[in-house]
Write a structure and sequence with these properties.
single chain, about 240 residues, alpha+beta, TATA-Binding Protein, 6-stranded antiparallel beta sheet, elongated
Length: about 240
């Protein structure tokens, strides 16, 4: 379990937290802030997650904003630095909307991001991560350099294409086609099918990567639904984060 203080949050985001957030945080217990998901750790994970999500998109220019929650429809609330208001970065209007709530009103009536409650999706055979909780992977990430070295030198996988800023790798292990992707500081291992043999091979690949990277493996349920990587919707975080 990783602990994130206000100072850690500001250091990781390389910016100061808005004074209204600091004031609200100081007037609530750590337990209350965590229960509402507005504690420094939840806010830090959301902002790091969004910064990666925004890469090479029209919203990349908004990466320096201080986000606090989402509306469940792909729009995100943030606190401006110079006002006691909560604003919404919205797709529908392709701009910024006023929530018409002060920071304290918003925090006392809404809930923050649930990314820390994310589970490994059933359709995902294995995840290589340095954290015990999948949602914390952005806090102790596997770097792009480490990922590339592991895929090319340790497994001798082939580069496919760049997706969201990180290269995808492909390999055939004992007749099983495996794809690996670095996302949110973790490596997700995918297979074309999810039969027992494919899952066992994917797990073996994940364990080999984990040993090389001083990481460990997380898995979904032992009875995943029968979909492969071509027809499953990839889980890139929790809807409504």
């Amino acid at each position: 379990m990783i602990t994130i203080t206000l100072a850690d949050l500001e250091s990781r985001l390389e910016r100061s937290a808005p004074t209204t957030y600091v004031k609200w945080l100081s007037s609530h217990s750590p337990e209350d802030a965590a229960k509402r998901r507005f504690d420094p750790k939840a806010v830090c994970v959301l902002n790091l997650w969004l910064r990666e999500t925004f890469v090479e998109s029209s919203w990349e220019v908004h990466s320096d904003k201080f986000f606090i929650s989402g509306d469940g429809c792909g729009n995100y609330y943030f606190i401006p630095d110079d006002a006691d208001r909560v604003l919404l970065l919205a797709h529908d209007s392709d701009g910024i909307e006023d929530s018409e709530q002060s920071v304290s009103e918003f925090f006392d009536t809404e809930q923050g991001s649930d990314l820390l409650e994310e589970n490994v999706h059933d359709n995902l055979p294995a995840v290589v991560t340095r954290t015990a909780i999948i949602g914390e992977s952005v806090l102790e990430p596997i770097s792009l350099v480490e990922y590339q070295a592991a895929m090319e030198k340790t497994l001798r996988f082939c580069y496919i294409e760049e997706y969201s800023g990180a290269p995808l790798y492909f390999g055939n292990v004992d007749g099983v086609e495996i794809e690996a992707e670095l996302i949110f500081g973790r490596i997700e291992i995918w297979t074309r099918t999810l039969d027992k043999g494919a899952l066992e091979t994917a797990l073996a690949v994940a364990n080999r990567l984990a040993r090389h990277l001083a990481a460990h493996v997380l898995r979904g349920s032992d009875s995943p639904s029968p979909h492969g990587w071509f027809d499953v919707t990839r889980v890139r975080g929790v809807t409504g984060a």
